[in-house]
Amino acid sequence: MKHILLPTDFSDNSWNAITYAISLFKEEVCTFYFLNTYTPVVYRVDSIMGSTSQLGLADALRQTSLNGLNQINDKLSETFGANPKHAYKMLSRFNYLVSGIKEFLSKNETDLVVMGTQGATGAKEVLFGSNTVQVFNDIKCPVMAIPEGCEYEKPLEILFPTDLQVDFNSFQLDILKHIASTNQSKVHGLHVSMGAELTRQQKENKAELETQFSDTTFVFHHYKSMLVTAAIDKFQTSAKLNVLAMINNKRSFFENIFFKSTINQLGFHIHLPFLVIPAKG
């Protein structure tokens, strides 16, 4: 059984992510957990504990949260009907998004978090908002971010850029391997060399990666002397990609792309479900 966490703020974006996740795992036995977190706009523990009006506000927010979850439950039945393989659980928590997700993960086995995302400014060139980036940073579970307006497509072609600088055994690749094997996906490993030959360690890591994906079609590609974002964009001209997957290697590769100005370049060109794979533990 797969356990999938779906944070929701009841927006069209989050519903889009929900429909993607349920479509992706429609043939599998899954429990989907729908998590809505809520806090007052201004939240102080002492005021909540000591003020009747603040307590009333908290109760009203909780009721709004519960009503929204009930509406999702109804919408699931209307949209997907009965699927004996799927179970739905609704969770309302007085918490912030990231700490609410962390609390859930500490108490529940979870294979994947799927969430909707849009740029914080609404600008088309910004791919991820601050909440999504914070989840990428702080959550030690694979996270799939579904961009605004991205409709489900069977993940037949998955792009996996890597600098080959990590021990792949130390990262949570199981969900990516599972998605690839159950959908008969072709996984494209992509390395940008900047003109240098692979080191001995990189060659060993490449061999390990090929072993990890031995149960599916895995093809490795080398590009030279270009930005990784440009390489990703170039690759899209030769393949109809359905998912982009990357390891969260903060020391270099991932950080260089997503926490510097290149985030804007990627946002211009990528409109794919984006799977972020953290380290184990």
TrEMBL record:
Signal sequence range: none
List, alphabetically, the Pfam families matched.
Usp
Q: What protein name is recorded for this chain?
A: Nucleotide-binding universal stress protein, UspA family
> Where does the UspA domain lie?
1-147
The record's family statement is: Belongs to the universal stress protein A family.
Superkingdom of origin: Bacteria
